[in-house]
Design a protein that fits this description.
disordered C terminus; elongated; single chain; Lyase, Ornithine Decarboxylase, Chain A, domain 1; alpha/beta; nine-stranded mixed beta sheet; TIM Barrel
Length: 377
């Protein structure tokens, strides 16, 4: 079986989506599934849609193209501010886009009129994360500009938390954001279809006892994929945390002294140690490294510890009392991943994706890389 490989259990992804979508629905909030970490993988997107996602959200146009080429026709929103160089393709491929710059919105409008269509605009509002967003006091003027621009239509407002600055959403911030939605409707008249309050970091707030106000959408990626709260890494009750598994092959295993025994040409290098001086211990080297994943984001299997990694080697040590291991050369080890490790693995050209429990496999045409299908029984 191909190694290294990424195994994706689509049943678990459908379950995670269905579980969160139902919980959010009881609070009047729709779930938009974010596929950017999985590079717009069509089968993964379909599993999310099957689970109850109301639409998809992407940050890169190449991923949107991949989804459309695979035959996915559900609403797709571009959640990163569009590039001027891509406005024609954005209008053609995306129903809606998140925006912060009037010059970009104007270019989208021209592109939409050229294509005889109307493009939806969601204005991104800065609420403390200090990444992208219009300052709240400028939102009204921007909304009126959009309203007066033919070729585009104002469909909503959105905000973001816990990405750049780690600012968590609070009940007070969400009330303030809801109030902005009311203010925009007073100024501009039409009902906002989408009031998107944030991402997976908003789930503790969404499942609280307070009112959710005008918030009717959350853009969820990490919680669906990994089943954890992105702020704390805590597993979310009722969700699978192992929908994605990275499998790597052992290429060397031997007992080696942890004390370097080589001579250093530069005396300053003698002070560098990857690990503390210690007794001899069995070390395992796997054929995977930083070119394939974020090695620091891997969950190391029980009985082993992380020693270090290079571009294409992952080195583990044993933690057993006798310093031995049951993993011989040619055997395989399985790793769970955090969000950073998952993103890098999905982007690695040498790691194929193996789909488990893919009931939609005949329709899941992958247009950017190899896929193998396996039904788990």
């Amino acid at each position: 079986m191909t190694c290294p490989r990424l195994e994706v259990d689509l049943h678990k992804l459908r379950h995670n989506t269905k579980t969160l979508a139902k919980r959010l629905q009881t609070r009047g909030i729709g779930l938009t599934a974010v596929t950017k970490a999985v590079r717009g993988h069509p089968a993964i997107a379909r599993a999310m849609l099957d689970g109850g996602a109301v639409g998809l959200a992407e940050a890169r146009l190449s991923n949107v193209k991949r989804l459309r080429q695979a035959g996915i026709r559900s609403p797709i929103t571009l959640i990163r501010t569009p590039m001027l160089s891509q406005v024609d393709d954005i209008v053609h491929l995306c129903d809606t886009s998140y925006n912060t710059e009037m010059s970009v919105i104007s270019a989208l409008a021209v592109a939409a009129m050229r294509q005889n269509t109307v493009h939806g605009i969601i204005l991104m509002v800065e609420m403390g994360d200090m990444r992208e967003g219009i300052m709240p006091h400028d939102l009204g003027d921007m909304a009126r500009h959009v309203m007066d621009t033919p070729g585009v239509v104002l469909t909503g407002i959105g905000t973001n938390f816990a990405c750049l600055s780690g600012i968590a959403p609070t009940a007070a911030k969400m009330r303030a954001f809801s109030a902005l939605a009311d203010d925009i409707e007073v100024q501009c008249g039409p009902l906002l279809e989408t009031v998107s309050g944030g991402n997976s970091a908003n789930l503790p707030w969404a499942f609280g006892t307070h009112a959710t106000g005008r918030i009717n959408d959350l853009r969820i990626g990490e919680a669906l994929l990994l089943g954890v709260d992105p702020l704390t890494g805590t597993p979310i009750d009722g969700l699978f945390q192992d929908a994605f598994t990275l499998v790597a092959e052992v290429i060397e295993t031997d007992a080696k002294s942890l004390r370097p025994f080589v001579s250093y040409a530069d005396i300053t290098l003698a002070g560098i140690r990857l690990v503390p001086d210690s007794r001899d211990a069995t070390r395992i080297i796997l054929a995977i490294g930083y070119q394939d994943t974020d090695a620091d984001g891997l969950s190391i299997p029980s009985g082993h510890r992380f020693i270090g990694a290079t571009s294409d080697h992952l080195v583990l040590g044993t933690t057993g009392t006798n310093g031995t291991t049951t993993h011989g050369v040619g055997s395989q080890m399985r790793f769970q991943m955090n969000y950073s490790a998952l993103m890098r693995t999905m982007a690695a050209p040498d790691i194929p994706t193996k789909l488990l429990n893919d009931r939609s496999a005949p329709h899941a045409r992958d247009v950017q890389g190899p896929i193998e299908h396996l039904a788990r029984v």
